[in-house]
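Before relying on records like the one below, remember that each one covers exactly one chain. Contacts with other chains, cofactors or solvent are not represented anywhere in the record.
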Amino acid sequence: MPGVRCGLRFAVVVLLACSSRLVLAQRPPAAEDRAPQARGPAQGEPRARTDGGRPANDGQRGNEAPRQGAAAPAKQPPKPPWVLSAAEEAFLDKVLVKWEESSKTIQTFKCAFDRWDFDKVNGPASDRYLFATAEGELKYKEPDHGDYVVTKVLQFVPPAGPPPDPKKPVPVKYAAAPNAEERWVCTGKSLYQFDFPAKVLRQVQLPPQMQGAAIADGPIPFVFGAKAEKVKKRYWLKDITPPEKAKDEIWLMARPRWQQDAANFQEVWVILAVNDFLPHAVQVFLPGGQQWKVYQFKNMKLNSAWEKFKGEFAEPSTPRGWKLVVEKPDEKPQDGKVPAANQARKVLSPFKQK
């Protein structure tokens, strides 16, 4: 994984600020079946998972119709991908409780980030499948305002001409990608997604149940904080900290329990610094196991008095030459896309697969 510190509804960012000694003192001994020994953020490339994942449907029979006259089988809950010991459960519970407690202290959050996009299909194998790099900024203001923007993207340029000789090294080239910017803004009552290639500003009016603090229930609760109990109900979680990192970091693996979340990502790793319990890296594995993103946070600012009154997160204006498309709850949007009630979760996720 290249030097990593930032990484996201998206993933995914756990805003923790609590006493590290209490939690670390009760970390359970390392188990033999712990996650693979992943390298630290600055010690190499991230590793794509090849186990298929199937996070949302493991152990289920599918939509098989019952025989005539027979009672329909009871719907079984998803099968967990692992079983935690009592000590591991206790340690995880303490981390989640501290997360929830510290999230309540966050009024504003702002940081810059670097992002690395890896693609085993389109990226060069000679450069660890690195397909693109990006720079951006993330902002949050309680309880329901967010701004995610990517301002610069460099993308892999495939070599022209005949296929190169695999025995000879080929220089890897990256160039600025046109119309590759990304941005979404949440004002509390609406989400605004900027579609730069199409020059469309999409406004998704949130239904009442997704307004206010309910933004934490979106596809990336790791970004804005959430209730510990809700996180446990929604994701399978596991401490996967490599032993050599345990003194300074806590690594959490999250897999979605339900299909609505599995549509956005297959797995997320969140790396926390134990000195302040803030995330300094997030790695997001997209559905299919062929693409993953690494986020590195930097220049973090918490609870800045200036940020509270700057007028951030105001309703964005439609850029000149663009089209505004408004999607209302339970209504068809103007351009035929899915209704807002179904679209809102997708728009909220900057980790979504393009």
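Residues 1-25, 30-66, 347-354 have pLDDT under 50 and may be disordered.
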